[in-house]
Amino acid sequence: NNFDKIDISAVSCGGEIKVAEIISLLRQYQKVLVAVCMDDACKHFDGNKRAYRQVARACELLKAAGLDPNRVQYVKLSHAMTRVMADTISEIL
Q: pTM of this prediction?
């Protein structure tokens, strides 16, 4: 696997992530994966939904610019779903 080629940045809530930040990360990285908590598990109530809207908007902007919108991905996870995270990363790579 190529997991050693991955950088991880933690935030206290996915809802903090903004479109501009996602687009900015694409200058440095080939792909960006936004991993957030499952529905009804978000201690900030709707942070995962806010993150999804930001990812969707980033994808719209990429598509409008003629770029691959699949460079930005989104996944909902829990701490017990390490296999899902590994599989998602493998698919992206």
A: 0.83
